Amino acid sequence: MDFSKVKAIVTGGASGLGEATVRHIASSGGQAAIFDLNEERAKQLEEEFGGGKVSYFGTDVTNAAQVEKNIELAVEHFGAINLVVNCAGIGTPGKVVSKGQPLALDRFEKVIQVNLIGSFNVLRVAAAAMQKNEPNEDGERGVIISTASVAAFEGQIGQAAYSASKGGIVSMTLPIAREFARAGIRVMAIAPGLMKTPMFDGLPESAIESLSASVPFPARLGKPEEYAKLVESIVENPLLNGEVIRLDGAIRMQPK
To answer: Least C-beta-crowded within 10 Å: which of 6, 9, 66, 83?
Structure first.
């Protein structure tokens, strides 16, 4: 698929990896619909690019009816949707038992609801819309990319909920890719390592340096733009399907 012709939905598109993806799509000639709850930041991106390149749809990815309606509106707005990039997510940490007290169940449920069920919610509705697209010369109708994490493989202490949510994304990628093969829709996932997103904004420089040193090469935090470039590579390489790609500088996370 030609990246300059994508008509995308990007969840979590108002910040971090999602924002970088929206910027890369719009700068490359494509169009992007931001599904996010950060209206102020999303509107800024909408105004920055103008010309219908970026459009905002206020969306709670865990709300089935809202996702269904907004995907319908996005399809009407762009004429079709041929790319979904699921970046919406939260990373609330918490030990399973801390100071003798069990983790509040609703904290675990919230992370699963946003990261895993939210990704599936958008994926299921967008895929139904993509199946109506005219196929390109390769028979392709669309691409779906979800965001996992290296925590799916080497979850640290306090990341039980986050690792479970990202592990779910890893596990569902292949069976969904197999299901959608007949429709010409590819399904992929990216598992980032330590990326310089707003999650790190409050850390002191010494902490950033320590985290950076833990990455074998390059010894630094990943850039959101590098995530966006990998999205482009996946879109333009039709043989990439049903796989999870680590984007991590060869890091393997320690227990804590």
So the answer is: 66
